[in-house]
Amino acid sequence: MATGGYDIDYAALGLTEERFEAFKSVFSTLDKAHTGAITTKQLETLCYKLGEDFDEEELSVATASLVDPQTGLIHFTTFLPWWISE
Predict the structure, then answer these.
(1) What gap in Å lies between CA 65 and CA 83, rounded to an integer?
(2) How far apart, in whole angstroms, are the C-alpha atoms of residue 64 and residue 86?
(3) Which domain covers residue 46, as residue numbers?
(4) Rounded Cα distance, 53 and 16, in Å
(5) Per-residue pLDDT tens for 45-65?
(6) How many distinct structural domains can be found in the chain?
(7) Could you give the C-alpha distances from 10 to 2, 7, 44, 72, in angstroms and in order?
């Protein structure tokens, strides 16, 4: 069950297609280039839009866990499994 630039098996994460699409929609509002990735500065906004207000320490830990060291970006395919497991 993969989909487009957000290639992830949402069923393996225990998500319905509707819930996956809801996460993808929120992420996409920040992914202006439609690459499936956001900047580290956008992580706080993303978390807030998903209902969590992280403090600076929580954001720092999350960023360290999520950022791609090669691109410096946070990819949807990394973010979603992390978010579901938190």
Answers:
(1) 11
(2) 15
(3) 19-85
(4) 25
(5) 999 999 999 999 999 999 999
(6) 1
(7) 7, 9, 23, 24
